[in-house]
Design brief:
The protein is of the alpha+beta class. It has three domains: 15-125, no CATH class; 143-248, GAF domain (Beta-Lactamase, 2-Layer Sandwich); 333-487, Heat Shock Protein 90 (2-Layer Sandwich). It contains 13 helices and 13 strands. A five-stranded mixed beta sheet has the order 6-8-9-11-10. The protein has a four-stranded antiparallel beta sheet with strand order 2-1-4-3. A two-stranded antiparallel sheet has the order 5-7. Strand 12 (482-483) and strand 13 form a beta hairpin.
Amino acid sequence: MHFIPFQKFKADHGLEFLFTILLITIFTLIILPFRSQGGQDHTIMSLLYLLPVVLSSLLWGLGPGALAAVISFLVLNYFFVPPYKTLLVHQTQDLIVLIVFLGVSITIGQLVARVSKSLAASKAREHEAIHLYELITHLAASKDSQEIISTLAEQTLITLGARQVEVMVEGQADIPPSHVRLEGSQQAAARIDSKPTHIVPLQSTGGFLGEIRVWRENAKFSPEEERVLNTFASQGVSTLERIRLSQAASRARLLEESDRFKSLLLSSVSHELRTPLATIKAAVTGLSSQTVEWDSDARQDLLSAVEEETDHLNLLVGNLLNMSRIEAGALKPECSWNSLDEIVSTSLERTRQQTSRHELVVEVPPELPPVLVDYFQIEQVFINLISNSTKYSPEGSTIRIQAVKMDEEALLVMVSNQGPHVAQEDLERIFDKFVRVTAADKVTGAGLGLSICKGIIEAHGGRIWAENLEQGFGFKLTIPISWDGFSRKAGEELTCE
């Protein structure tokens, strides 16, 4: 891993002054042989001695720069101003040159040192911003606590050049504790002491969340590194709290939706169950009564009412079971090759009581290819669509079932009626649970039929949608006639499972 330092290397405290003296000594030894060529002109020498002053200030800061200026002043006086090898100055001109050199060298040294310090600070802030941006970018993409602490550990390891980083987050309520340990290298990790060199707590307003532990060869952290580590911890805490608040909000919404679903289901189902049960109860009580003599027609009417309401109950229970499977993701069609004409005929037979007051038109050519579907689930789709058509279309109107071959892989089926149009914005909502967008106060039902149709058709790899027709309303759906892209051959038996 690559570590970008926050500032230039600096020698240990005290050594920079020794390096300054050594630098001026070497510089003096280099130019001393040229002293005779300089004659009495000390200007050139004084300009040359500004070089070690600038270098000392640039490399080691204000103190070494000031020391370099003083030593250069003394060396210049001792070796290059007559009389040589003394600190005496006989000429006023030489004294002025030395004094000016001392002032200029100190001023330049301080200016260079401050510029160098400012530059180092700017680079440090730039590196801090880069590392912080990388951390925030990775944290923003994290989806759970484990990803957050993994990102936090990885960025800390890279940024601080650590041997090892360990991030621990305590568990809360139903959230388990999390722990991540990353090592810079196996050789470095083998030399790590049991005690970390630095520990930063993950502290939120709600209490202690965990901590970041860092092992590093250089146990002393610079102020910039301290600031970055604390910022990393703060960002980690903020992201952890955001994720936990989001998870809590999601759980609250889920519970609220579950409660709403249960309330709507109980309210709708209780009403749906009450009406047919009351009818069945009344019919059975009348038939079993010994005080009334029922003629054959009246008895047949009561038996028909019992049969119709029993079918209604059977449809309702079937819808509830299918909806529970769809919600649980357990609705898996057991596909086999079937005749669509046969499925439609069975569906009409099971809904004959409901369709007795409507005119039925079936246009399903027998020469259509077989469909690869779950027989009973597709039958349930047609029962629900026919039942919906009988509820929303006037008595005596036409309910039409049509099917054509759309392409080599699917049939297009339409179940239409002469009911009212639906607002354009409600055409998609019509397949949601408990949604009834037309005559909702006059039509009975739990509002699950169309939602179940959508779930079954999509489980088969098809599509269902609603359309306003020129003379009524219709549902269109696609049903597959191929298996993995291959149509059935004569005499071939294939299933989806």
